[in-house]
Automatic annotation (TrEMBL):
One of its GO terms (molecular function) is integrin binding. GO terms for cellular component: cytoplasm; focal adhesion; plasma membrane; ruffle. Residues 7-127 form the Talin central domain. Residues 269-351 form the Talin-1/2 VBS2 domain. This is Talin 2. Residues 141-230 form the Talin IBS2B domain. It comes from Leptobrachium leishanense (Leishan spiny toad). It comes from the Eukaryota.
């Protein structure tokens, strides 16, 4: 009897760990999509590299967990092969994404967005195999419909902006309006792609943050369309048409964000930083208490790195929204200090781990 309970507990633990790793993979994928938007010359490739590292490391650990869980499922009379197949599909989708995200890649942006969407789809299929789906399928369907509604409204805005460009004699202003309209179209395509990526793991605060970030870029591009149109013409009818179309995009975007917040409100009423902070404090204590246990130290260090990544991401998001430059600087400084301190602690754990390993060689 104890053996049965132990096996069940092990399966539950494996499922939760796999779910957490899939959360990190989808959040990292959405981060790659957001970070690579715009001019490649302005891309923060250091941040992209960090996101790629998060994806790769979590995929590696997830693969190990899946093999263990598949074996346990077979012992219980389940179909572990379907789980392994789902994991293989996710690994293939991630591999395709990382290839298209390389700085040297010459593939169109749409290829990257499609690859990111495939990561989201295969992530959802994997979570279904282990019974760990985040949200009601109807909620996810509505999420996609709302994202596509933003894209449709943005397409109408692009057409109105192009009407302005066609009526403008100044070639420089004409080019600025067309560039703003193009950016608007790109940002909404990016929003739809991010929605596809994070929909299966929308309960994760980090995934929600990435979708909100994509929404901010749409809002910024809409402002660019309106401002460039106002600079290019004084025709009241043309400007009214642009204004109405821009309002429609803003409303559609608000509908999407409210849908996300509605889902987030269903979670535990913790503060913005509370959960990640509690995890960091608990895991830090666990690392010290597990000195001498190599396997446990590795597990705790991995949890610490993920919790810190979540917290740093939340702090940076607040810094971007902060209107006071001094407060923004303090938040960014705190994020850097936290990241550096965690890196030193993880490195110390690795040193301890290597010493433990040498003792048994």
């Amino acid at each position: 009897m104890n053996t049965i309970f132990t096996r069940i507990n092990k399966m539950d633990e494996s499922k939760h760990e796999i779910h957490s790793q899939v959360d990190a993979i989808t959040a990292g994928t959405a981060s790659v999509v957001n970070l690579t938007a715009g001019d490649p010359a302005d891309t923060d490739y250091t941040a992209v590299g960090c996101a790629v590292t998060t994806i790769s490391s979590n995929l590696t650990e997830m693969s190990r967990g899946v093999k263990l869980l598949a074996a346990l499922m077979e012992d219980e009379g389940g179909n572990g092969r379907q789980l392994l197949h789902a994991a293989k599909n996710l690994a293939g989708a991630v591999s395709e994404l990382l290839q298209t995200a390389q700085p040297s890649s010459t593939k169109p942006r749409q290829v990257l967005l499609q690859a990111a969407g495939n990561v989201g789809q295969t992530s959802g299929e994997l979570l279904q195999q282990i019974g760990e789906c985040d949200a009601d399928p109807r909620f996810q369907d509505m999420l996609m419909q709302l994202a596509k509604a933003v894209a449709s409204a943005a397409a109408a805005l692009v057409l109105k902006a192009k009407n302005v460009a066609e009526r403008t004699d100044d070639q420089m202003q004409q080019g600025q309006v067309i560039a703003a309209a193009t950016q608007c179209a790109h940002s909404t395509s990016q929003l739809v792609a991010c929605t596809k990526v994070v929909a299966p793991t929308i309960s994760s605060p980090v995934c929600q943050e990435q979708l909100l970030e994509a929404g901010k870029q749409v809002a910024k591009s809409v402002e660019g369309c309106v401002e460039s149109s106002e600079a290019a013409t004084t025709d009241p009818e043309l400007l009214k048409a642009v204004g109405v179309a821009a309002t429609a995009v803003t409303q559609a975007l608000n509908d999407l964000l409210q849908h996300i917040k509605k889902h987030a409100a269903g979670g535990p009423p913790t503060g913005r930083y509370d959960q990640a902070t509690d995890t960091i404090l608990n895991v830090t204590e666990n690392i010290f208490s597990s000195m001498g246990d190599a396997g446990e130290m590795v597990r705790q260090a991995r949890i610490l790195a993920q919790a810190t990544s979540d917290l740093v991401g939340a702090i940076k998001a607040d810094a971007e929204q902060e209107s006071d430059l001094e407060n923004s600087r303090k938040l960014l400084s705190a994020a850097k200090l936290l990241a550096d301190a965690t890196a030193r602690m993880v490195e110390a754990a690795k040193v301890e781990l290597s010493q433990i390993t040498c003792m048994f060689l």
